[in-house]
Amino acid sequence: MAKSSSSFVCANCGARHKKWAGNCDACGEWNTISEDVPLSSGPTRGTLGGVRGRQIPLSDLATNETPPPRTRSRMEELDRVLGGGLVPASAVLVGGDPGIGKSTLLLQAAASFANSGMSCVYVSGEEATAQVRMRAQRLGLADAPVRLASETNLRDILTTLDAERPDLAIIDSIQTMWSDTVDSAPGSVSQVRAASHELTQFAKQRNTAVILVGHVTKEGQIAGPRVVEHMVDTVLYFEGERGHQFRILRAVKNRFGPADEIGVFEMTGEGLAEVANPSALFLSDRDRPAPGSVVFAGIEGTRPVLVEFQALVAPSSLSQPRRSVVGWDSGRLSMVLAVLEARCGISFAGLDVYLNVAGGMRISEPAADLAVAAALLSAREDAALPADCVVFGELSLSGALRPVGQTENRLKEAQKLGFTAAIAPDGSKISGDSGLSVRKIADLTGFVGEVFGA
Ligand code: TYD
Ligand code: MG
């Protein structure tokens, strides 16, 4: 058998390379390739190695049993993102920027799960047990029946967990874990991958749910948990703008529930508080109509959320005017600007454009296209939309507006928050009375004509 000669791996996509390079030709990322140390030398010559595994016909697995009960933490926002509670023996990765509040979230989760009757172990590789206890005290959780450990040696951790057999083990963080089967520093791709692999295997074999914490940096400098994403059942990202107190826990992959589900939290002096009605929170003070501000009726996962898009358009002194976006995709902003120019003849040349989603929320739905176009037009014309109106619809390159899913849920949420009117694409399915006066519009030219009288 040929000796494996590829010994460099990309932290972003996991592709293997024979040589080191600054740029990964599989995913295009820069500075993500580092040396990889193989876990073992593989089977000896002439044999396939290993023992014969057991095969089970799929039909034999069919039983009348209900799926294993999930455990709910009674932190509603967390349970929803997990798909209705924590599945036994599952492996969950919680990723996020350093300092965003992952340790706080998981300490609170550990206490909640423990109070729901699970045996929980919280292993910190970053803080001493005394520090974790101090944090728990600050969070008012010092009495929770959670066992703490401060350890980074993976072998010791697995031996301890094997003896204790807890229902849930939290590993904070995977970058600090060190496995003696791999000859490289903690935090390297090889170490992160080996430690995650061993911990997920442990979860499946010993029926212990494992939650791994992973740091991601914007530069992808440390071994990102991207490599780990393939191994685990559920990947959650904890996001938020540093300056804002709101934090979003988002499911990006979930074998046991819907992806794209979000949970909303607020960072307070006493830890993370759940936010049951995020719409009210993402809307800034809206007593008077303001030019450039448009409320988008969005759907995040299974939940309708109203958010405010704010645009500012100002004459530019630069040869290449600024396009600055916070909370939305900059490529999509360019598309909306191009459609406005090509289909409606409204040019933003020579103008700086700033677009912001209020409250530190990130929106990725294409249904926000129309709200963005409306905010841009409103800022450019210095004409405000009515303050009691929500907008949604996807924009195609021809300038036509396409209906989007869950129209009724969007309208219901808007009505609940006191809005009285909506602008939606032609063809949106609305059965019965939504309680709002809905204006249906076929294309962007029609929108400009109706709303701005151009
Ligand atoms: P932490 O959970 O340590 O972040 P991570 O594990 O993701 O690195 O949280 C760090 C920040 O949270 C820190 O800057 C302080 C803030 N914080 C509060 O505002 N209130 C609190 O009750 C706690 C525990 C932390
Ligand atoms: Mg931490």
Helix content: 25-40%
Tell me what portion of residues adopts beta-strand conformation. 15-25%
Number of strands: 21
Biggest sheet overview:
9 strands, mixed
Tally of individual domains? 3
First-last Cα distance: 72 Å
CATH homologous superfamily heading of the largest domain: P-loop containing nucleotide triphosphate hydrolases
What ranges have pLDDT less than 50 throughout 5 or more consecutive residues? none
Task: Give me the side-by-side strand order of the main sheet.
Answer: 6-5-7-8-4-9-10-11-12
> Which geometry do the CA atoms define?
globular
- Provide the structure class: alpha/beta
Q: What is the mean pLDDT?
A: 87
**CATH class type of the largest domain:** Alpha Beta
CATH architecture label name of the largest domain: 3-Layer(aba) Sandwich
